Amino acid sequence: MSKDGSGGYRGHGLEFLSKHSLSIADSVEFDTEDGHIIGVIMPRYESGSDEFIVIKLKSGYNTGIKIAKIKSITKLPGKDIAPTVTASTSPERRDLPKIALISTGGTIASKIDYRTGGVHAALSASELYASVPELADHAWIDPEVLLSEYSENLKPHHWTMIANRAAEKVKAGSYRGIVVSHGTDTMHYTAAAISFALQNLPIPVVFVGAQRSSDRPSSDAALNLIGATIFAAKSEVAGVFVAMHAGLSDDIVAMHVGTRVRKNHTSRRDAFESIDVTPVALVTNGSVEMQQDSEIRLPPRSSATGLKLKPDFDDRVLLLKYYPGFDPRLIDHAVAAGYRSIILEGTGLGHVNKECFPALKKAVESGMMICMTSQCIWGRIRMTVYDTGRDLLGIGVIPLSDMISETATVKAMWALANATSIESAKEIMQENLANEISSSIPISD
Amino acid sequence: MTSLDPATLDLKVGFEIHQQLATKSKLFCRCSSKEADKYDNRFVRKLRPTRSELGSFDPAAMFEFSKMRTVEYHAACGSSCLVEADEEPPHDISSDALETALIFSLALNSKIMDEIHVMRKIVIDGSNTTGFQRTMLVATGGYLDVAGRKPVGVQSICLEEDAAKLIDDDKQFRKYGLDRLGVPLVEIALEPVTGKPDEIVQVALTLGRLLRASKRVARGLGSIRQDVNISVQNGAVVEVKGVQQLDQLVKVIEYEMKRQHGLITIADRLKQRKVAVDQIGERIDDVTDIFREAHSKIVTKILDAPDAVFLALRAPGFSGIIGFEPYPGIRIGKELGRMVRFYELDGVFHSDELPNYGITDKEITNVKQKLQLGDKDAFVIVGGSKDRVEPAIDAIIQRLKGAFAGVPAETRAATIEGETVFLRPRPGAARMYPETDISPIPVTESKLAGLASKVPKPWDAVIDSISKKYNLNLKLASQIFDSNYHMVFEKIAADTSVPPTFIVSKLTEDLVNLQRQGLDPSALTDDTIADIFARLDAGLISKESIVVIFEKLMKNEVRTVDEAIKSSGIISMSREELSIALDRIIDENMGTVKSKGMDALNTLMGRAMAVLRGKADGQKINGMLKDKLEKLVK
Question: Which among B152, B209, B275, B442 is placed 20 to 30 Å from B362, CA to CA?
Fold first, then answer.
């Protein structure tokens, strides 16, 4: 639904509505060439044709009526049903661990207006308990709305906002954990950003999203939110995590480390996967099972005094995927456009063809930080195996081991904003700060 | 029953026909609409109701949710993909299915929507992985011509997704197969009609025939389902689901007429008693202790469970009412029994039926004392686990209060016997919202103009053309058309030189006979039937063996036609083999031949058929036997 109140109508549709002083949710009777139609005016897809008015009939069905067929209109007295306040909200359990729930967008809990078909976020504590009553069994939730954005619209300055807000919550000292609800498309970027921005975190910060919107009965939102809350409240470790379905079933929520997770599917509810490591924990039936075989070493919970907040990011970083036919002039253009770093997503063990060498050399000489990751997603790069790799190292390309490209991009933005020189930024890139680099990749099926 | 006059009762019956379409793919993905014979994957889900902004949940949705448990889904490759698993947004609508819905709308003279909007109808019994059914209103109004009555009005024509198939429902899991989920269905709701049940059924029959005449609908068991809205004067509309056959439909209408009038009779008696409705449910007591020492097997079995309780409800003024039967089998007590079964409880007893089930006078007296029961009061006891008994008691209170109004508006399910049982309360309008994943679909004049030629002809004309085309009499033509085998008949008639009359007789009379013996027709797919007739055409099997093969398959004794042929030894004999076999039969019966001459033919034929049935064609046997006999007699 549009934000300007036009309900998505434009052109003829909008003209028609304003000419007859009609607005969304008005009850009307249309006399058309096909007979009388009584219903409620509904919002319209903005992308659809402007020749139709959408009506909800008494049966509950919506239908589009061609404006050209409408002969006359009678506005009927509106039957506004007084919203009944939900009575049965669970009382807050102040004896339970207190969890801050920061909402950044995506509708982790929502309610439907069946009259207009609109979906609205349900984010007051009482609405949350009403939507996901199980939450009240595990935690005392303190919710707040920080941002209301689709995740594709989030930018590095939003990461800064989230980091600052989370740091305030940590410093308050009264929270056992923080849950951040987030649209899934870029959730792994934000999780990586917060992993670098909040150093020495004393408590868990758990990102959570949903692949099926929460307005449908089959949404994965509730289970993910319950899993995230339980982990934030019960786990003995600190750090930044992503909580999402482990499989297609509504039973297990996997906890991924914020720097080692990637959205690997457009639509499945288990789209998020840990890369090269096993998830650190699974939440099943209300309890946390730490995965003992995980190579990831996590710090235990500690006191808030150790928190180091470094919330700044420099967005002059280009993530560039190499492909056959790649034009080396793209690198020149990046230099000319003022980028300070390129994360190359090379082939295999970390390669680009030798036609790129002159451009890369020029870029490095101009003071740019060029780093290499692999487009293979899984596995580590190794640039000493083939000539090409060795030559690239010679030019000054920084190998990023098994860091995933998205994490590398975020880290470069953070390193450039926090390092005193490009040389120290390069050193930071190769240091393991938040489990973004692993020392060994386990053998698995 | 004969005492009930539909006209006096003002019986009204509205049909809602759900017809599966014979499209190659499903409505919102390109998976096959065919039923799976095995499943490859499973996953489990939990659905939860979504709350409307008005702070209310749809009553039907809440009712299902109150029974909620884990749902297990089984998927087969080919018939389901990520769309059915609710793991991928729906694809574009099947243009074939939409076209069919538009053709039906034209055939029923309905007003087609200018722009069709796909909606989500909340259904959280687990039969849809999404928790809703995708459905769209295609047309409204129009009429159906029915012989012998005024045209019947059409309310609406919708195109929607079929639900998943329930495989199993035990206390732990409800299991569904995803192969049927998303198969296109056309739902046609007709205006309520009046008349005698058997006349009313003609309406449904006529509509079914119109749909089949399009050759665009699926055939076979379960491909057409009728919901029937039934009401009588002073009652409420009761929706009966799951009527699959027309003879069952007559029984259901008759049963509901009797049930609804019975409930109204009970309500009248209650009103005469001047019972205060508000007092129902005022007194509920825990009577578990009274039954601790009981010898009743049912009671002790219930109390074996750790959290079991018995709650007793005082029903003021209901003495003699709960067990009162205005018609045999129609009583409030029976309705209560069905209702608690919904909460997975078996133990419900009321004072009108006690002492019984091993419950003694002493226990009854104790319960009456505890509830401070008056002479005109009744009680209802429910036993079982506490978290089920409490909502069940609430439902009973509502049902007893509803007894004053007579007929509660509810959704009921048809039983095979033609009765109906409580299924759930009727859903409210608060269960539809737009399917935002699919853009609205405009219907243009030019598109409709192109479909006009595809509108099915009237039934009489269709039968007439079948009759002419295949040289069948009108009776056979209508029999094959009304059967589930019309499409396969046309295929066999086109592909083989088997006479159409013969094919029809096998596919109607013989198959009906086998089904009457209780055999399972689902074992005979169209492909199997076509295969059998192709073998006949090729001379590989005899005419007589067709029914033998049908029977073997329908008894599930064998799985394939080859196995059926092998196990019954009906391989067609060569001329030489037949000649040898007949010579042997003549030898064995030489006495008869000598004494009767040519008149022995009938006896010999009987002997021969006893041995050779299915192995050789009867006419062939007769001919050869006659030749041999003639030579011998000469």
Answer: B275
Owner of token pair 């469970």? B305
CB within 8 Å of A92: residues ≥ 6 apart: A125, A136, A140, A141
Contact criterion met (CB below 8 Å) for B322 and B380: yes
Amino acid residing at A443: I
Tokens of A155: 């930018």
Q: What contacts B469, CB < 8 A, 6 or more positions away?
A: none
The separation between CA B213 and the C-alpha centre of its own chain, rounded to angstroms, equals: 21
- Which candidate in B51, B137, B443 is best for mutational testing of the A interface (most A CBs within 10 A)? B51
Q: Under DSSP, is residue B108 helix (H, G, I), strand (E, B) or coil? A: coil
Q: Which residue type occupies B142?
A: G
CB-nearest partner of B137 from A63, A81, A219: A63
The whole-angstrom separation of Cα A253 and Cα A237 is: 17
Rg of chain A over Cα atoms, rounded to whole angstroms, equals 26
DSSP state of A442: P
- Neighbouring residues of B151: CB distance < 8 A, sequence distance ≥ 6: B143, B144, B145
Asked if residue B442 has a cis previous peptide bond (ω within 30° of 0), the answer is: no
Best mutation target among A41, A47, A62 (most B Cβ atoms within 10 Å) is: A62
Q: Residue B92 and residue B75: Cα distance in Å, rounded?
A: 21
Q: What single letter denotes the amino acid at residue B332?
A: I
Q: Which two tokens stand for residue B62?
A: 């809440």
Rounded distance, CA A52 to CA A61, Å? 15
Q: B459: part of which helix (H) or strand (E)? A: helix B459-470
DSSP assignment of B295-323, as one string?
Answer: --HHHHHHHTSTTEEEEEEEETT-TTTTT
What is the tens place of the pLDDT at every residue in A289-331? 999 766 788 999 998 788 999 999 999 999 999 999 999 999 9
Dump the DSSP string for A353-403. -GGGHHHHHHHHHTT-EEEEEETTSSS---TTSSHHHHHHHHHTPEE-TT-
Tell me the pLDDT tens digit for each residue of B258-305: 999 999 999 999 989 888 888 888 899 999 999 988 888 889 999 988
Name the region of A289 (left: φ>0; alpha: ψ -120 to 50; beta: rest).
Answer: beta
**Among B107, B115, B104, B248, which residue's Cα sits nearest to residue B187?**
B104
Give B112's contacts (C-beta < 8 A, 6+ positions apart): B102, B105, B106, B138, B139, B443, B448
What pLDDT sits at residue A88? 43
- Rounded CA gap, B520 and B507, in Å? 14
N-terminal to C-terminal alpha carbon distance within chain B: 69
Closest among A251, A287, A293 to A274, alpha carbons compared: A293
Beta bridge partners of A68: none
Nearest 5 degrees, angle CA A206-CA A246-CA A409?
Answer: 55
CB within 8 Å of chain B, chain A residues 184-243: 211-212, 214-219, 222-223
Q: HSE, CB side, 13 Å, CA atoms: give it for residue A184.
A: 26
Chain A residues lying within 8 Å of B113, measured CB to CB: 63-64
Chain B partners of A129 at a C-beta cutoff of 8 Å?
A: none
Rg (CA), chain B: 30
Tell me: the pLDDT tens digits for A21-47?
998 888 999 999 988 999 989 888 767
Q: What is the predicted ipTM? A: 0.89
CA distance B625 to B67: 70
Given the structure tokens 């599917």, which residue do they identify? A265
Structure tokens at A428: 């930071």
Quote the tokens at residue B461: 């004309």
Cα distance between residue B416 and residue B230, in whole Å: 18
Place of tokens 């609405």: A127
And the tokens for A423?
């040389």
With H, G, I as helix, E, B as strand and everything else as coil, classify residue B6. helix
The reported pLDDT for the residue numbered B53 is: 38
